[in-house]
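Human:
Focus on the backbone:
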Amino acid sequence: MKIYLDNCCYGRPYDDQTQVRISLESQSKLAIQQLVTVGHLELAASFLNIYENEGRKDENAKKHIAEFIHDNVIDYVDESEKDEMQPLVDEIASTGVKPIDATHVAAAIRCRCDYFITTDDRILKYRTDRIKIVNPAQFMTIER
């Protein structure tokens, strides 16, 4: 099974853990990360994961996320593929998803991911036959 994590998902463990939802999503994201590390899940990423991570203020988070992506990604969408994805990005963005988020979803579809995992409520509302979109806690309840 192949998954794509967007940047809000990568950053969830570094958010304020006093909120139940954030804590639950953080623990689930860390469990997903472990499943990737041991080879039970395949991980895809894109140039946007790298670009957005570079903008993080928390140097510790930036370093850990970059290392995880570098060490575990098996399928990657390079910036040179952006023009080819643009029609799909436009289609997704036309539903109200922000263009940068639409690009993440399009990259996941391009990599033929089974799941797009996010904590962004706006993206979680988007529906398509091409990929399942869930938050980390939802993903952990799926039978594999």
Remarks:
- Residues 2-140 form a domain with the Rossmann fold fold (CATH 3.40.50.1010).
